[in-house]
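Continuing the series of single-chain predictions for the mutant panel. This is the parent chain; the variants come on the following pages.
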Amino acid sequence: MLIENKTLAQNDVATLRLITGEEVIGKVVSVNDKEIVITRPVVIQMQMLSQSQAGLGFVPFVVSIDEGDKFLFTFDKLICAPLKTRKDVATNYLQATSKIAIPANGGIIA
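Parent structure:
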């Protein structure tokens, strides 16, 4: 059952769970009650960092596209409504998909 999520806005980082099982993250271009449009989509995958440690990795959703291409996902192709991505994952996503460096601690630079 889909639950409407009105907290997503343009430029938020959203997480989508597709009916095919992929967990996709992207930057919101637009969202309404039937569909969401995102840009720079990546699939989250668990990756082994060592024999005893795993971490999250980002894999391009489609590798043969231009960087700014937009993707439309209708809600009937999602397991649940799009959700706002957890802050630490969103920060890593933004660092991986943009040229802007995000400081670890927010604040004013003197």
